[in-house]
Write a structure and sequence with these properties.
Number of strands: 15
Structural class: alpha/beta
Strand order of the largest sheet: 4-5-15-14-6-10-13-11-12-7-8-9
Number of domains: 2
Strand content: 25-35%
Radius of gyration: 20 Å
Distance between the termini: 47 Å
Shape: globular
Protein name: Arginase
Largest sheet: 12 strands, mixed
Amino acid sequence: MIFLPIDALPQDKTVRSQLLHEYFVGQYVTSQLIDNVWSIDLHFPDFADYYIDPHLLEGLAWWKNGVTISEIPFAVKREPSFQLSLNDSWTLLAWSQWLSSVNIEQTEIPSEIVILHVDDHDDLMSPRVWDKESIWSDAITGESLDLLEPNSVINAIRSGAIGIGSFIVPLLHFIQKVQIRHLCATGYSVARQGWYSLTPTLVSDRLFKPNCKRLAVELQSCQNPSSVIENKNTYRVTADLNEWLKDLPANVPILLHIDMDYFNNRFNGDSDWEVHTNRYDPSREEVIASINVMFDVLYQNEVMDKIFNIAIALSPGFFPAELWEPAIEQIRYQLSKQ
C-alpha cells in the first residue's frame, strides 16, 4: 500500500487511472481517497485476460505444474547455459549476477560491454528507481538497489520498480560504455536509421516526489557516428543479421539478451490484436527457422564464444504461449553445439 497527498493525483477517475497505469507498468493499480490522502493498492494481475493469450494456461503448464497467473512476474530459472524467465524484467538479474561474479573474480567491473538485444522493443523506459548522489533506491519500497548485489535486484523486480521495458537503463548508468546492437524485425529497424547516442540522465519523479530523480536515458541520432562510437554509449537497430554483428569491438564482453517476441509478437500486449491486419505473427515453422538462422550467423561469425551471459524471456501477452516449448527446445539444441 502506498499513500500520496491529495494534490499528487488528479480528481478525475479516468485521468488518474491512466496516470497510475502508465507509472506502474505491468501492475494492476487501484486508488481510493481516504481522509484527503490517496491510498494506492498495487498487485500483479491474477486473471488470464490481462495477458490476452488464449493459450496462456497451456504455456504455464509447460513452464511448471502449479504456477499461477499471479506468479508470472516472479517466474525465473537457470538452465545450464542461460537464464529463462517469463517476464523480461529478470534480464537485469542475469546481468547483475554476472557483474557480481566478475567483480569477485577480477576485483573490478568491465568499463565497456556490448549488448546483443534481440527484441521487438527497445526496452529503454525509465525504471521506478531513484538516484540520490549516485545512491539508488526502489521508488516503491524505498529499499536500496545495487547491481553488484543481486538480491537487491531481485527485490526491485519483485516490487515492480524494474519492469519489462525498463531493465536496460540501470546498466547504462552503471557501466561506463555500453554498445547496444538491437536486432528487430519490425518497426524500429525501419524508423531508426544509423547510429544513436545513449546519454544516461535523470528525470523528475512526477508522481511520488518531484524533487526525486529517476534513472532515464536520452536517445539521439548521431551526427558524427565515428566520434560517438569511440566515446559514448551507442545504440543501433537493424533487421539484418550480418549488419547486427558488423564491426563488433574486440576484447569486449558480450551479453546476449533474447526476448522471444522478436520471433513472433502476435499480441503485443494489445487486447484488440485480432483486428490488426498487419500484426507480426510468423508461423511455428517460421519461428523455428528464424531461431536457426540467427544462431547460425552467431556461430559463423564466431560470436558465440565471446558471449559471457545469455538471458531469454518468453514475454506472456506478446510471444504466443503455444510456441514456448518448441522455441525453447530449439534454442537449447542450438546452445548445445557450443
